[in-house]
Amino acid sequence: MTIETNTVGVLALILIMTLVTLVTRFGGVFVMSFVKISPRIESFINTMASSVLIAIIVPMAFSGDAGAVAALSVTAGTMLIIRKPLPSIAAGILAAGLVRYLF
User: Fold this and answer.
1) Any idea where the domains of the chain sit in the sequence?
2) N or C: fewer beta carbons within 10 Å in the chain?
């Protein structure tokens, strides 16, 4: 299936992506409304969120450029020291920007 990249085609793609996003987000909430949240289910959901984050970060740590490694290192170090996510993320972004600007 191909869609032309004129104005109508681009708008159709945006509409399709919007619908898919809404169906997956609302569908998950709808399905979970039938599930009783037990401690075991809650533990699974919390662990799943962590595993997705790790799946994103680990490849970046091994195959990313110097800016990505600096961002990861500074964010992790700052998080361990001050235990606040927002300043840690800001420090990581700053580190990535500085490394990429200077090198």
Assistant:
1) 1-35, 37-103
2) N
